[in-house]
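HUMAN: Can I see a protein plus its fold?

ASSISTANT:
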Amino acid sequence: MATIRLTKEFSFEAAHALDGYDGPCREIHGHSYRLFVTVKGTPVEDPADPKYGMVMDFGVLKRIVNEEIVARFDHALVLRATPQSTELCKALCVRFQNIVSVDYQPTCENMLDDFARRIAARLPEGVALHSLRLHETATSYAEWFAEDNPRISHP
């Protein structure tokens, strides 16, 4: 049976600041992110299986990405956990609820690495994460490919 790739697009709004950065992105600012998630596998061959002919149900992929990524990051302020940001988070949390503290600089590149780990861990048996593309703006994006990242588990 042929190996097939499936891609689903997601979008979310988030703000971040790049702590210690030497350009304007050190300030809190937001993006309309677009995330493309591509998985690969072989379609189910058993005609008695309700998923016959599918690599993966798009609804299952949607649920995984919504739970792991969109629900966590949509309308969030994402900050790297540092002593300075801890104080800022305490002050902001008095008024705002969706502050996400991460152990990495929240660049598009690092977010993709985080997203890949979260998504790959939830995929059904026989389905592998192939690639991710995260658009930070209409003209700027980063990509993650499984072939470049063998440390992420594959079926």
